Amino acid sequence: LPSMQTSGCKPCPSFKLREVASMYFTMIAVFLVILVVALQGSAPRESDFPYKVPLDPQGLLELSWNVSYPEQTVHFQLLVRDLKFGLLFGMSDRGEFENADLAVLWSDGHNSYFGDAWSDTKGQLHMDSQQDYQLLGARRATEGLYLLFRRAFSTCDPKDYLIEDGTVHLIYGILEKPVHSLQAINISAIHRGLQRVQLLKPNITIPELPSDMKTMELTAPNIVIPSEETTYWCYMAELPAGFPKHHIIMYEPVITAGNEALVHHMEVFQCAAEFDSFPLYNGPCDSKMKPERLNYCRHVLAAWAMGAQAFYYPEEAGLAFGGPGSSRYLRLEVHYHNPLMFKGRRDSSGIRLYYTSTLRRHDAGIMELGLVYTPVMAIPPGEDAFILTGYCTDKCTQLALPAAGIRIFASQLHTHLAGRKVVTVLSRDGRERQVVNADRHYSPHFQEIRMLKEVVAVFPGDELITTCTYNTEDRSRATVGGFGILEEMCVNYVHYYPQTQLELCKSAVDPGYLHRYFNLVNRFNDEEVCTCPQVSVPQQFFSVPWNTFNRDVLKSLYSFAPISMHCNKSSAVRFPGEWEKQPLPSITERLREPVPRCPPTPGPRPAAPVPLDLGKLRRD
Amino acid sequence: LPSMQTSGCKPCPSFKLREVASMYFTMIAVFLVILVVALQGSAPRESDFPYKVPLDPQGLLELSWNVSYPEQTVHFQLLVRDLKFGLLFGMSDRGEFENADLAVLWSDGHNSYFGDAWSDTKGQLHMDSQQDYQLLGARRATEGLYLLFRRAFSTCDPKDYLIEDGTVHLIYGILEKPVHSLQAINISAIHRGLQRVQLLKPNITIPELPSDMKTMELTAPNIVIPSEETTYWCYMAELPAGFPKHHIIMYEPVITAGNEALVHHMEVFQCAAEFDSFPLYNGPCDSKMKPERLNYCRHVLAAWAMGAQAFYYPEEAGLAFGGPGSSRYLRLEVHYHNPLMFKGRRDSSGIRLYYTSTLRRHDAGIMELGLVYTPVMAIPPGEDAFILTGYCTDKCTQLALPAAGIRIFASQLHTHLAGRKVVTVLSRDGRERQVVNADRHYSPHFQEIRMLKEVVAVFPGDELITTCTYNTEDRSRATVGGFGILEEMCVNYVHYYPQTQLELCKSAVDPGYLHRYFNLVNRFNDEEVCTCPQVSVPQQFFSVPWNTFNRDVLKSLYSFAPISMHCNKSSAVRFPGEWEKQPLPSITERLREPVPRCPPTPGPRPAAPVPLDLGKLRRD
Prior knowledge:
The structure is a homodimer of 620-residue chains.
Chain A: E1 3-5, H1 20-23, E2 29-31, E3 51-54, E4 61-68, E5 73-80, E6 86-92, E7 101-107, E8 112-119, E9 125-127, E10 134-141, E11 144-152, E12 167-174, E13 191-198, E14 214-219, E15 223-224, E16 230-238, E17 246-254, E18 263-270, E19 282-284, E20 299-305, E21 311-312, E22 317-321, E23 329-337, E24 346-347, E25 350-356, E26 362-363, E27 365-371, E28 378-379, E29 386-392, H2 394-400, E30 406-414, E31 419-428, E32 431-439, E33 449-458, E34 463-470, E35 479-480, E36 491-497, E37 504-509, H3 511-524, H4 537-543, H5 548-558, E38 563-568, E39 610-612
Parallel strand pairs in A: 22-26, 27-37
Antiparallel strand pairs in A: 1-2, 3-4, 4-5, 5-11, 6-7, 6-12, 7-8, 8-9, 8-39, 10-11, 12-13, 14-25, 15-24, 16-19, 16-23, 17-21, 17-22, 17-25, 18-20, 18-23, 27-36, 28-35, 29-34, 30-33, 30-36, 31-32, 31-34, 37-38
């Protein structure tokens, strides 16, 4: 039996934070023989697993994966840097450890097992009656143990998670003591956490890049990451004077080695052209020292989040920057997630832009779909899934889009803290035709620009309907629309070409009909609500007694009352036309929910964990 | 190969009605060899298939079946009296031939096949990818061909019908021409029809019957069945003078031989004790000649519908009849269904009562649950599944039921023509505990008294919640509650013991809250509805403009507004107490929809029809 030593905790500054008990198991000799399935040939190449993300803040667990759409399967390669007595890896609706779908490797110190398990509403683990995490192999390397396994997107096992487009909440747990059975694992007592990723990356062919392509790095200038859980770092950069118009055709992250688990997401914003200059600030975005003017740097040029790869513009389009009429000032924002409060860690992460002066055929544009930022759109408190819908109507697209239409190739969904799902659907002649972007496990903490799997063509007369689902179970008063962090938004920033004048295509309920709602609530509930005109809409919402009737009628109002449309060239300039009291788009035919395809060959039934000979795991 | 002649159309008076084309195929020689599965041993005994029903009005197709709850399977034996080129047998939601689940036997004249098929929304047939109607055998007899096959209640194939408790709509079709493939069957061009049955009969042990049991037959006096599609026949009978109190402990149908397909359902009613005598009428119930007083004969003593067997009271109880305080007059009502308009058919069908003078421990009682007959409960027009709910509250059961509770052992669901589903659930301490009776394929044309699979114990403080689902897609104005055939009811007559004073435990929305609804609709819709107090509730409902908002708000009202309770000793006498503006029972925990169990060994996948050697079928 080949022997294996622990590989010495290379990135291990969290040492002090470990519990004393776990110190016991630090040095283990692992005798490793794989009985089940040996990896065919040698170690898989890195290109076999194009996507990679650290699971835990220390980087002990590193997940790589690939996606096969023909097979409707994900292959996972999990690197375990410091194996103790096993680990849990899995998926759940929003990262919770209850009702989760888990692959578990566990050892009693002598024998090791791998199995597909699930946790019930109390977090108790059970072996799954259908084994759908299929172990393909395990491999020892100096850096740790590699586990290779596969999972079909859909297993048709009701205990399993359905892998869908959009965000997937991955969960992990580390077993630091021997366990004698799966059932003996106390899931609330282990070192555990969650990581959000887009598992089902689109399968996009990379467009050809021009020979005159240049690069520009916007990176933090060797800063010290604050020893705080959450930091948004702001760094201002300046384009050279007279920098002419270019097209950004690609960008990618630049991450300082060793900080992969800390850099959560990054964005590059262009500042407003109306100001000649901006102060060159370098510091936390929420610092009192941050100059006020940086709030005018909000036009997104590039955005990256953990697990994302390089972003390529379609070959017909590029994002214009530089040249007259655009600001020379750029703001880099880096979100550091440092839950273990590492101190003194230096970082120079940022984004590398690839741009060309050979302009492509089309400028790319960004359009806002969804709801206007107004308090008339509100969510009652204590709702687990309240839906608000924003419309981009046929009348607006008729007026603002070219006859040849536009092509949407990417999308960034946005809500504040109560957002749980966001979906935009394209409707034509009253029939839903295509999902533009859907995230049924949306998290406000994970807002990526995502390439669409398929470019969506939108023509004059089409309707774009954006639906956001909110959870306000933890709130005691109504959540109204607005800019505040405890107010809500429902936005889909779609990236498209060719650029048009249309920047905003959003709606809100007609305020007159909302006034009728308050009157109705007032009369029906014996005058408890003050509807005096001098009272603000939020105040009126806050005074509604939220019984089931008033909740239901608000829903009915939002799905009946006419809307006020914002069909705007910029946030302040509307297209000419009548945009008040517009009828709600009527949908005569809805898209069917896709019926999940079941795998042709389900795993063994009933439950049978796979024994793994990892040798004797012992305390040192 | 054994040869088989057609058995000559014994009950074949419909001969004239056949299409000329079909005359071609009347005489066929069938050479019958069963390749697939020979019946084990000899022909199955009659007791193997305790339930029997004719499918078509001529009785060409006769279905027998049994139910195995341990195996969750139904075994069918289908007798085909005059086989031509095959037949269809199946199930669908409400008897339609679209989206149906079908077993098909078809022949091109040379080869015959049996397979599990389904029809799409256009009625086109397709072979099912999973074969769940499993052919077990076929057998030639003088009376025709017997096909024996089985079907699991639930197959987990989305194309298959889920066999549930309550009404099942069976459909059949007869292939009168050779067909070369399943796909070639034009389902709209064949002789076809539907039959409603309760497939999943409860598995009840028959109580011991006393030695002094007597019988009394209430049968039509050799009447001539009118040559009309639908006849309700009324026949009055009289108990002997001084007939003392007895207990009915069982009853069963008496059907004149040959009329099995015509007698649809029968009921025996006792007349009101307040009248000393009733005219002894014998004739159609809707005749102008029928004396008015017969409307006072409405107390159900016995009810039977096609496919039902004998009805046994539980051994602790019997239904009282005779004795002082009860009328000596009984009314038999027979519903004849004669779509082929047979003429001159004589009939003496009716019900045989088994009764004893050795009274059992308890009198059985009948209680009405559901909605009060009042127009305040209404259904908007154009609804495909509008739900109304009637409550029997904790306050009423607290007052009216004995501490030891009552036992419900049977139930008869009742609505008028728009009813589609009826469900009664027992709730205790706000938690739904048990389904009392549920029919998710309820038809107003098939109202049986059904024994419950399990006796339901109801204690003081329990709540009984009855939910009816209506379809008003064919109506242009609101359907209000009431006695009229185009008005609606939502009732569950539950049969229970020991008898209590509680005869009615029903509810309706508080009229004051309904008035607020009309006011609200009025204001919200710019004064279109007349809410002047002199206008009747139906008139107010008829004037509501039925936009989505007004529909939604009516639903919200019904699930929010307090109720007026009828907790009554008889239809006019309430129990003492405050019954107006009562709070709606609140349900904190709902019963889970049962997850259908899939069969352990699904049929062959993919589709493979079973070839049957029925010899050469030829035109004569």
